[in-house]
Amino acid sequence: MYSSASFARSRLFRNEEVLSIDYIPDKLPHREKQLEELLNVFLPVLEKPGKMARRVLITGDIGTGKTVTAKKFGQLITVEGHRRGLNFYYVHVNCRKERGSFTRVLLKAIRQLDPKIPDRGFATNELLSKLMDLLDRHDAYMIVTLDDMEVLIDKCGSDPFYDLSRAHDDRVEGPFRLSLICVLRDPGKLEALDPATRSTLEEYVIHMPRYTKEQLIDILMDRVRLAFYKGAVREHIIDFIADISAEKGDARYAIELLWRAGKLAELEGRSEVMSEHVRKAVVQVWPVAKEVIDALNLHAKLFLLGIARTFRFTDEAYISMGEAEDAYKIVCEEFRQEPRRHTQLWKYVQELAELQIISARPSGPGHRGRTTLISLKSIPAEELEEELTKAIASDLGIEGT
User: Fold this and answer.
1) Parallel, antiparallel, or unpaired for β 55-60 and 178-184?
2) With the C-alpha atoms ordered 198, 201, 202, 203, is the resulting torsion angle positive or negative?
3) N or C terminus of the chain: which is more exposed, having fewer CB within 10 Å?
4) Alpha-carbon distance 133 to 122, whole Å?
5) In 19-58, which positions are buried (b, 16+ CB within 10 angstroms) versus exposed (e)?
6) The architecture CATH gives domain 291-396
7) 24, 22, 297, 350: which is closest to 148 by C-alpha?
8) Domain ranges in the chain?
């Protein structure tokens, strides 16, 4: 039975919100330099409005602060733009949430100026033209950030980036109103773009390195101070979480571990987070962020789904490359997709191993013929299957899967 005690004020958490993935802190420990760099690059856009547009590429692994730095920059530059009397907009678009649709990206930008624009009825070139017309009509300036841009690359190729980077081509003397920030994990994805577009996007690159253990401690200390009551999380717990997270330098993973450990302690009615709560949290939090799974292209997801399903129904630690390919073909048939060739699947194996989702090694003595043996690292096959099924359905626009 539930009681009023179930709704009592937490003895641990002062403000859980600061542990949310969407929280933008006042300070960004160990990303001050990159934030300052971004502000410096875009300063001429404020000082001489209409005289130039900027294009910046932000790269780095999951959990290295790309998104939060871009959003913090957006907050600061918008305030400064308004302070200078400019009609200034910052639009942060998660390309994954928009399903890699360039139309939806443009609509999100346009709705800052025209909230009533309908969802349908426009080609992308018409939408881009409408956006530029609206910026002119409102004497406005806009920075659009394309987060998880690899999804847009996979879905649309070079066209969106070519169109956006050439939006001012017919304006020899300006005004230049639209600037662009692209955020992606793997710079290798840019190889899929045509050379001219790639060159334009690489005009200015800011790389986010992985956090060190000491840097993760600083970040966690900051969040603990804001999120928990004094004494609820002691220094050795922060050190323990930072130690676990340091291998990948992933602040997002570290913060999720902190939150999950806090919730487990709260569930037990404790007033302090213990090391055992952290150990239990490690089991519950995926070692690979779900955003990494989401960022895979469609056929890499289909291939991984085949692997996950195979492991669900076998007690073997490894499966062969041939078994993985057979499972992939069945999954492709289920989702009505044309299977990729062996060469491409081998590239997926390398990518998934690099991301530490699977391990792959050559077969040794005792195995007939030479093949690659594949195993899942530490994500339960059933959970991985469930997550991939949802992600694939989202990619394909299938409802209710």
Assistant:
1) parallel
2) positive
3) N
4) 15
5) beeebeeeebbbbeebbebbeebbeebbeebeeebbbbbb
6) Orthogonal Bundle (1.10)
7) 297
8) 32-208, 211-285, 291-396
Are the folds of 211-285 and 291-396 the same?
Answer: no
Contacts of 73 (CB under 8 A, 6+ apart): 35, 38, 39, 42, 90
SS3 374: strand
CB atoms within 10 A of CB 105: 24
Tokens of residue 243, six digits: 């130690």
Do residues 89 and 112 make contact, with C-beta atoms less than 8 angstroms apart? yes
Q: Residue 217 class from Cβ within 10 Å (0-12 exposed, 13-18 middle, 19+ buried)? A: buried
DSSP 185: S
Q: For residues 285 and 262, is the Cβ–Cβ distance under 8 A?
A: no
pTM of the model as a whole = 0.81
pLDDT tens digits along 272-328: 999 999 999 988 887 676 777 888 889 999 999 999 999 998 888 899 999 999 999
H runs (alpha helix) in 321-375 = 321-334, 342-354
Distances (CA, A) of 246 to 52, 216, 224: 40, 7, 18
Alpha carbons within 13 A on the beta-carbon side of 368: 1
- 3-state secondary structure (DSSP) of residue 209: coil
CA–CA gap between residue 355 and residue 350 (Å, rounded): 9
- What span, in angstroms and rounded, lies between the C-alpha atoms of 256 and 260? 6
Residue appearing with tokens 């990518």: 351
Query: 211-285: what fold?
Result: Helicase, Ruva Protein; domain 3 (1.10.8)
Is 167's pLDDT higher than 90? no
Q: Which two tokens stand for residue 370?
A: 């030479």
Q: What DSSP character marks residue 189?
A: G
Quickly list DSSP for 73-103: HHHHHHHHHHHTT-EEEEEEEETTTTTT-HH
Token digits of residue 19: 């542990």
Superfamily of domain covering 32-208 = P-loop containing nucleotide triphosphate hydrolases (3.40.50.300)
Contacts for 153 with CB less than 8 Å, ≥ 6 apart:
161, 189, 190, 192, 193
Q: pLDDT (tens digit, 9 = 90+) per residue, 245-265? A: 998 899 999 999 999 999 999
